[in-house]
Specification:
- The chain has about 180 residues and is mainly alpha-helical.
- The protein has one domain: dinb family like domain (Four Helix Bundle (Hemerythrin (Met), subunit A)), CATH 1.20.120.
- Helix content is about 55%, strand content about 5%.
- Helix 2 packs antiparallel against helix 4, helix 2 packs parallel to helix 6 and helix 4 runs antiparallel to helix 6.
- The protein is globular and about 45 Å long.
- The protein starts with 13 loop residues before the first helix and ends in a 7-residue tail after the last helix.
């Protein structure tokens, strides 16, 4: 039987985020966007996830999952936490950060890697102050707060791409698929 992206149970309701303290709000928005990307993929098989649907772009839903695993790893674990890690799929030095080189056979592995990275990234930020500073690869001073805001915008942008990709794949629209 062919692998299919699992369904998503929402753990965050957007209406509840507006009155939370800053840290919980940032974590909530990030989690909502993570779940949205997974919801855009839910129910699709490996071939559908790896298919380009908005020509001439080579962007795919599977490429977005791989990319976000790479981006989460880069900012939370490598940059903020200073973990000496290599790339998951590809890295910033090649410019595509997991978007290219997608093969349908890699879907189950890519989704498992994505979920593992989310867990490890959350652990890297757990208990750390939002004002804790680190330096970017270019030497700019940044904070953990900045990483959360960056990740929310990164997901928001790519979830917009995922909207088009999913609609062109099977017609599904909305935040849950």
């Amino acid at each position: 039987m062919a692998w299919t992206a699992p369904g998503v149970v929402r753990t965050v309701e957007l209406g509840h985020l507006g009155i939370l303290p800053e840290r919980q709000m940032l974590e909530g928005w990030l989690q909502w966007h993570r779940e949205t990307l997974l919801a855009k993929c839910a129910g699709l098989d490996s071939a559908q996830l790896a298919r380009t649907t908005v020509k001439p772009s080579a962007l795919t839903l599977l490429g977005l999952v791989r990319h976000m695993a790479e981006v989460e790893r880069w900012w939370f674990r490598r940059s903020f936490a200073g973990e000496p890690l290599g790339d998951v799929f590809t890295g910033p030095q090649d410019g595509d950060e997991g978007l290219d080189g997608v093969e349908a056979a890699d879907a189950a592995q890519a989704f498992a890697c994505f979920r593992t990275e989310l867990r490890l990234c959350d652990a890297a930020a757990a208990g750390r102050d939002l004002d804790e500073r680190f330096r970017s690869a270019q030497g700019a001073p940044l904070t953990l707060r900045w990483v959360y805001v960056l990740m929310v915008q990164e997901y928001a942008r790519h979830n917009g791409h995922a909207d088009f990709l999913r609609e062109r794949t099977d017609g599904a629209t909305g935040d849950n698929g």
